[in-house]
Design brief:
- The protein is α+β, with helices and mostly antiparallel strands.
- Among the domains are: 173 residues, Aspartate receptor, ligand-binding domain (Four Helix Bundle (Hemerythrin (Met), subunit A)); 121 residues, GAF domain (Beta-Lactamase, 2-Layer Sandwich), CATH 3.30.450.40; 135 residues, Heat Shock Protein 90.
- 65% of the residues lie in helices and 12% in strands.
- The strands form two sheets. A six-stranded antiparallel beta sheet has the order 3-2-1-6-5-4, sandwiched between helices.
- A hairpin with a 5-residue loop joins strand 10 and strand 11.
Length: 646
């Protein structure tokens, strides 16, 4: 039980208060004695001077009788001495703080002073007054009587002085005694305080320090004696409790370290599984290969004996067993497909809640019980998800009872999400390829329709005309038609070759300028039309798919120039500006009037619709401008943002 706080402080404060009271009392006594001694020396001096003043008054009285010339002067001085005697006597009785001069505080001194006053007032002062007031006969009588009273009066004054000296000596000895007592009190008080604090504070703190040093030296068995019920006793109790706790903790430290090591090993194992599986799933592969590799890694990591991946088909609303490892033919035949309500896998798929159970006590939703007949002791089912979209379920089976921890279940659920993302990515890539093939086929069909199909239609008409001419026997007309047929066949042949060139074009990354320059060289060699290529600005390369579409637009423009422009020169300029990329193809051919020839820019015109579709596919815009007699200009503009290769 801990002591109430404040006991040690009360002891220390109590001891200091006692020491303070004793010291204050001694100091006050010293002050009192000093106050009593204040002005005693002046009083003794004044009292002694009264003796001399008495003798002086007798001397003045005698001289006044001896010399008549100085009688008045002596009388005046005698009067002053009388007044001074009265003043000093009054000061001795009442004191004078200005000097300082203290009044008598000793009863004996006070009594002697009263005796002196009485004799002075009753005997000597009247004689002095009679001397000053009377004639010569009265003065002689007064002097004679004064002389007879002089010695007894001086003796009385001597007694007063001696009494004052004895009182002064007593007070002085008492002051010295008190001061000596103060010195002794200071010495003994200091010794007592040192021993008191040593016993009360220093020694217990030293014991505590020794205990701490022993604890620092790994001696957890150290315990401090509880010698008091004050704060230091509470500190000793707290130290002992801390030592017991540390000893207990140190005793179980090895177990804790071992448990933490096992936990960290488990965590590392889980992270290793997660890293291995996610690394594998990030590689491009068919869905079936992803499922097989996923199962193999999960089985090996968790020690499972079998596994399966079931994918959901929305059109039939069934789960199909697409991949399996370690399952018998009978198992595969029974569960090759199942409705979502047939067994536990369907329930896990519908609810999204994972399941891990012992087959000896299967849940009610497990209706088929194929895994029980297969001999598995533990069966599990985890959802395959992609962005909250349910794609399927995967299973792990164990021949021996296997208890999965919460961390393992969470890991398997996370891996199911990763598998779903990988499967969906492969599906998206497949759809993207299908869409690209479909779009390319549409473009090919449009180009075939706009070029080869129209040429074949023209040839079909010419063949009919040739047949009609032959039937009529018109050889000249037949020869003319045959020439037109030959020109049409040659033009169709050129179109086919041009299409082959278009669809075999491949632009290497960051080499668009070289590809355009090469296409212009081939165009110039085939047609004899002069070409120039200019590059303006610099920038990062575009995506390869975008560069291919740009090349198709350039080649389509060159094809139209070859067929219709009758140009002598072609200028191609690629400008890379901030925020956009622009490609200009300009010729100096015959041109056309867009206002008077609306079909020239219509979607039916050869290649123009395809060029615009290609530009739209890469987020750009294709414009055609022309002036009759001044050639035509094709401008392709596309934003540079998000189009460059990182």
């Amino acid at each position: 039980m801990l002591a109430k706080p404040g006991k040690l402080s009360r002891k220390i404060v109590g001891m200091l208060v006692v020491f303070f009271v004793v010291a204050t009392t001694a100091i006050c006594l010293t002050l009192l004695i000093s106050w009593q001694l204040e002005g005693v020396a002046a009083a003794i001096n004044d009292a002694g001077s009264q003796r001399m003043r008495t003798y002086r008054m007798g001397h003045l009285m005698a001289r006044g009788l001896e010399s008549t010339t100085q009688e008045s002067t002596m009388a005046q001085v005698l009067g002053e001495e009388q007044k001074q005697f009265d003043k000093v006597l009054r000061d001795l009785q009442l004191g004078d703080p200005a000097r300082p001069l203290s009044p008598p505080r000793n009863p004996e001194v006070n009594q002697r002073l009263k005796d002196v006053e009485k004799i002075w007032l009753e005997a000597l002062q009247p004689l002095v007054s009679s001397y000053l007031a009377g004639g010569r006969p009265e003065r002689e009588i007064a002097l004679n009587r004064f002389d007879s009273e002089l010695e007894p009066f001086v003796s009385t004054i001597n007694e007063l002085v001696l009494a004052m000296e004895r009182s002064y000596a007593y007070d002085t000895n008492l002051l010295r005694t008190v001061q000596a007592a103060l010195v002794v009190l200071a010495i003994f008080g200091t010794v007592i305080l040192i021993r008191y604090f040593s016993s009360l504070v220093i020694r217990p703190v030293g014991v505590l320090h020794d205990g701490m040093q022993r604890m620092i030296g790994n001696d957890l068995t150290v315990r401090l004696p509880v010698a008091s019920d004050d704060e230091l006793g509470s500190l000793a109790i707290g130290f002992n409790q801390m030592a017991e706790h540390l000893q207990s903790v140190y005793g179980s430290l090895a177990e804790r370290v071992e448990a933490e090591t096992r936990r960290l090993a488990q965590r590392n194992h889980e992270l290793g599984i997660l890293y291995s599986v996610t690394t594998f799933l990030s590689e491009p592969a068919p869905v079936e290969a992803l499922s097989v590799g996923f199962l193999n890694r999960i089985k090996t990591a968790l020690g499972a004996d079998a596994g399966a991946v079931r994918m959901y088909a929305p059109h039939s609303e069934k789960l199909y067993l697409t991949t399996s490892e370690g399952l018998s033919e009978e198992f595969l035949e029974r569960e090759a497909e199942m409705n979502c309500g047939d067994c536990l896998c369907g329930e896990v798929f519908q609810s999204g809640v994972s399941a891990a159970f012992a087959t000896i006590a299967p849940p009610p939703a497990m209706k088929l019980r194929t895994c029980v007949r297969e001999g598995f002791a533990t069966a599990t089912a985890f959802s395959i998800l992609y962005d909250k979209q349910k794609l399927g379920v995967y299973n792990l089976y164990f021949l021996r009872p296997q208890a999965l921890s919460e961390q393992e279940i969470h890991l398997l659920e996370t891996l199911g999400h990763h598998l779903g993302v990988a499967i969906e990515n492969q599906r998206l890539k497949s759809r993207e390829k299908e869409l690209a093939v479909s779009e390319e086929r549409n473009l090919l069909a449009q180009e075939l329709h706009d070029s080869i199909a129209q040429g074949l239609a023209f040839l079909n008409i010419q063949v009919q005309l040739l047949q009609d001419s032959l039937r009529k026997g018109n050889a000249e007309e037949a020869m003319q038609t045959a020439g037109q047929l030959r020109e049409g066949v040659q033009e169709s042949y050129d179109d086919v070759r041009e299409l082959l060139v278009h669809f075999r074009t491949r632009v290497h990354q960051s080499d668009l300028d070289t590809a355009i320059n090469s296409a212009l060289e081939k165009f110039e060699g085939q047609t004899g039309i002069g070409t120039d290529f200019e590059r303006i600005g610099k920038g990062a390369p575009l995506l390869p798919t975008d560069e291919i579409q740009i090349m198709h637009i350039v080649q389509e423009s060159l094809s139209n120039i070859r067929k219709h422009a009758k140009a002598e020169h072609v200028q191609v300029t690629v400008s890379r500006e901030i925020g956009r990329i622009k490609v200009d193809i300009q010729d100096n051919g015959v041109g056309f009037d867009p206002e008077n020839c609306p079909n020239c820019l219509s979607d039916r015109h050869v290649g123009l619709k395809i060029m615009r579709e290609r530009a739209h596919r890469i987020g750009g815009e294709c414009r055609i401008a022309s002036i009759p007699g001044q050639g035509s200009r094709v401008t392709l503009t596309l934003p540079r943002e998000n189009r460059e290769v990182a």
